[in-house]
Amino acid sequence: MSKKTKAPEGEAQPEVSTVSSESPGVDVSAPTRAEGTAPQQPQAGAPGQPQPGAQGQQPQTKMSVSRGFANWMSLQRSSIAFTSYQTGKLFLVGLTPEKKVSFHQQSYQRAMGVHAQRDRLYVGSLFQIWRLENVLGPAERANKHFDRLYVPRNAQTVGDVDVHEVSVDRAGRIIFVNTKYSCLATVSTRFGFRPIWKPPFISKLAAEDRCHMNGMAMEDGLPRYVTAVSRSDVINGWRERRHEGGVLIDVQNDKIVTDELSMPHSPRVYNGQIYALDSGRGNLIRIDKDTGKKEDICFCPGFLRGLALHNGYALVTCSKPRDGAFSGLELQDQLKKRDGEAWCGVLIIDLRSGDMVEFIRMDGQIAELFDVAIIPDTLCPMAIGINSPEIHSMITFDKEFAPLVVPVAGAQAAAAKTAAA
Prior knowledge:
Elements: E1 2-5, E2 16-19, E3 28-29, E4 37-38, E5 61-65, H1 69-76, E6 79-84, E7 89-95, E8 101-107, E9 114-116, E10 120-124, E11 128-134, E12 141-142, E13 148-157, E14 163-168, E15 174-178, E16 183-186, E17 194-197, E18 213-219, E19 222-228, E20 246-250, E21 255-261, E22 264-270, E23 273-278, E24 283-287, E25 294-299, E26 303-310, E27 313-319, H2 330-337, E28 345-350, E29 356-364, E30 372-375, E31 381-383, H3 390-393, E32 395-396, H4 408-420
Parallel strand pairs: 2-8, 13-31
Antiparallel strand pairs: 1-2, 3-12, 4-32, 5-29, 6-7, 6-30, 7-8, 9-10, 10-11, 11-13, 14-15, 15-16, 16-17, 18-19, 19-20, 20-21, 22-23, 23-24, 24-25, 26-27, 27-28, 28-29
């Protein structure tokens, strides 16, 4: 089910196609269908399918894009994934062959961190970390123009540990920020999680969200930096330290790189430099790894949580306040000083100039976003949701038979790989 939305009045109006999680079925087509793909297409109006007009009864969100957004996407030859934990949505943004902006959304309960590879997505949710796999071959298309079709294949149950950012290390392990227990963790075949690091100021692992660790930067396939709102070692102690005292920590040596941030989020290493979000002040920043000195790159009109860096650009997710104002934060003062209102959306910033060059804006039901990621070498992605009717009938299988008996060495390697995953 799709509809057209318009850009804000006064702007050019690029065509935007939005596809909801209630879209009626998936059709896979190609010049030659890949062997082993057997999709079936539910019909609209069939039992269990939404009836026409049902979607209109739900609260709506208006999505619009800047005038040059479609052209920017075309030049990047990549797509965007972002999440809204407030509404439990995973959004995939791409371009159709007609150069229309495509928004595809699916439901993942309290969708948080998202990590994207060309053919794989990881999504942190309320109590699980999901792995989604692309099932399309190079020449295949789903619903005529989607060149990636991500299907949920695995859910690692970690419990409600307030999963924030998610990544994968060079050994293939899932690494995630376990905010409730104030640590970095990986998954386990037996336990909910296995801790791999905690800040030196945290005296013990406890389900108390002591410092609100929330962001993680990878470097050379290993965790390198994390952000936390404070150095508090008591339950919810960070809530009294929101305006200042936020830290960036070097995981490899436990060094506090800086403690002069306000509610920092989403550290990243890009071209040898550290970037992060000084969220309580509304700034995308660059941090000197040796001195800890920060440089403001761009002020953004909202609370920042997610950051992706690509081809000299920063993509940040921007949210409106939960209670009408960003109380106690410099961000609120800056918005008033600039005579501005908070936004919800994805902002694209040129790192060379610090200018905001393109955007996605959301108005309506969705007011808070969490993470954003670039999906490389992908033009127009879609996904199947865990509760969507398509998941029952989207059946694929490997055309190559597996060995009846796995050699001992192979079995050990497979067991090690499973344990790491």
